């Protein structure tokens, strides 16, 4: 009996530390289970009543919501996004590796003519478009397996956001218009879908037929996905400078680092400290590996600011206006850095990172 008690105690303690379920997750699971039993039906009735004003007939609404349900995982992750809690090293290691870099180069070679045409049309380096899809879905290899319609139903019913309801109706329109099949309409827990990870409302606003076959297919047509991404950038006041890196990995002089009091682990980005590359060079800033900051491939007049995602621990970057352009597409600094690093590799075949260890 004593042995059984001790064994049970050890197992309980072990589970607290080793199981990958956080206390906040458990609380959210309980919160989901305690939702009113009538919530699903009540919300469905409310959404149905407003369907005609959102371009959906009652007949179509009933047809596509016959098996609708609330998703526990979507409910929990919407309230506890662990990606936002990851440290920088873990995040970059997860989204960039050697194979992704090599696959990106292969895609650039395979679709070169079409990518150049799209880049010229939307005035952006094709390598950026490929980098975005590389970070979003690993070039279409990771599309998610969550019902997009159920995800938006869950969010519309459990979050106070009018846009979520609009996306629920837009998801029904995508099914009604036969743009996607019900059994293929899968995506992320949040309701994003396809290689671009568009939300349903964005599809109707931004998706384009890049390959000219008369069908917009964000699941299977890489060129449709790239062209739609380019159109998205274009519609978001996107301003891109050709052949200019979004970030430049650098070494900073110790005295300058001391002067700004960087904290370990705290992200630093001071847009007021903007200088031209030549001026950074004068105070001792150089590329990683003690290479000259200015060369024949980059304008010495280019204005940049220091970005230290990990604070005093490094690595350190000078970021250009192209970095901010990526932020116009996705406001996450982590996302913007990941896209910037992959773009640098695809465009300039630079090492992804020299002073920051990542996988492979």
3D structure, described in words:
- The chain has 360 residues and is an alpha+beta fold.
- Mean pLDDT is 89; it is low at 1-21.
- It is globular, with a radius of gyration of 24 Å.
- The chain has a domain at 247-348.
- The strands form 2 sheets. Strands 3, 4, 5, 6, 7 and 8 form a 6-stranded antiparallel β-sheet that branches. It has a two-stranded antiparallel sheet with strand order 1-2.
- It is built from 17 helices and 8 strands.
- One of its GO terms (biological process) is peptidoglycan catabolic process.
- One of its GO terms (molecular function) is glucose-6-phosphate 1-epimerase activity.
For the termini, the CA-CA separation is: 50 Å
Largest sheet: 6 strands, antiparallel
General form: globular
Low-confidence stretches: 1-21
Summarize model confidence as the mean pLDDT.
Answer: 89
Give the structural class: alpha+beta
Helix content estimate: 40-55%
The string of secondary-structure elements, in order, is: HHHHHHHHHEHHEHHEHEEHEEEHH
> Beta-strand level of the residues, as a percent range?
5-15%
């Amino acid at each position: 009996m004593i042995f059984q008690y001790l064994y049970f105690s050890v197992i309980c303690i072990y589970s607290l530390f080793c199981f990958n379920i956080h206390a906040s997750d458990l609380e959210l699971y309980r919160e989901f289970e305690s939702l009113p039993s009538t919530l699903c039906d009540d919300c469905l009735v409310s959404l149905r009543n407003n369907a005609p004003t959102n371009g959906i007939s009652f007949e179509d609404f009933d047809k596509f919501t016959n098996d609708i349900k609330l998703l526990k995982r979507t409910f929990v992750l919407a309230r506890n996004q662990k990606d936002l809690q990851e440290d920088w090293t873990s995040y970059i290691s997860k989204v960039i590796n050697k194979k992704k870099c090599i696959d990106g180069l292969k895609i650039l070679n395979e679709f070169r003519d079409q990518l150049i045409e799209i880049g010229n049309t939307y005035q952006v380096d094709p390598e950026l478009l490929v980098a975005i899809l590389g970070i979003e879905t690993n070039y279409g290899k990771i599309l998610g397996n969550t019902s997009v319609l159920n995800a938006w139903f869950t969010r519309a019913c459990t979050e106070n956001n009018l846009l979520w309801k609009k996306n629920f109706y837009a998801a029904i329109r995508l099914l009604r218009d036969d743009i996607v099949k019900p059994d293929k309409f899968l995506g992320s827990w949040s309701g994003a879908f396809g290689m671009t990870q568009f939300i349903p409302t964005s599809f109707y606003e931004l998706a384009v037929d890049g390959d000219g076959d008369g069908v917009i297919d964000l699941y299977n047509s890489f060129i449709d996905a790239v062209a739609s991404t380019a159109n998205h950038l274009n519609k978001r006041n996107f301003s891109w400078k050709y052949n200019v890196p979004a970030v430049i990995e650098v070494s900073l002089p110790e005295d300058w680092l001391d002067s700004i009091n960087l904290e370990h682990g705290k992200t630093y980005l001071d847009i007021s400290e903007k200088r031209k590359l030549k001026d950074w060079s004068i105070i001792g800033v150089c590329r990683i590996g003690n290479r000259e900051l200015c060369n024949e491939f980059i304008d010495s007049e280019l204005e940049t600011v220091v970005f230290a995602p990990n604070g005093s621990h490094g690595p350190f970057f000078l970021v250009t206006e192209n970095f901010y352009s990526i932020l116009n597409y996705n406001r996450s600094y982590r996302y913007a850095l990941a896209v910037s690093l992959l773009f640098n590799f695809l465009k300039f075949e630079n090492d992804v990172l020299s002073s920051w260890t990542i996988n492979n």
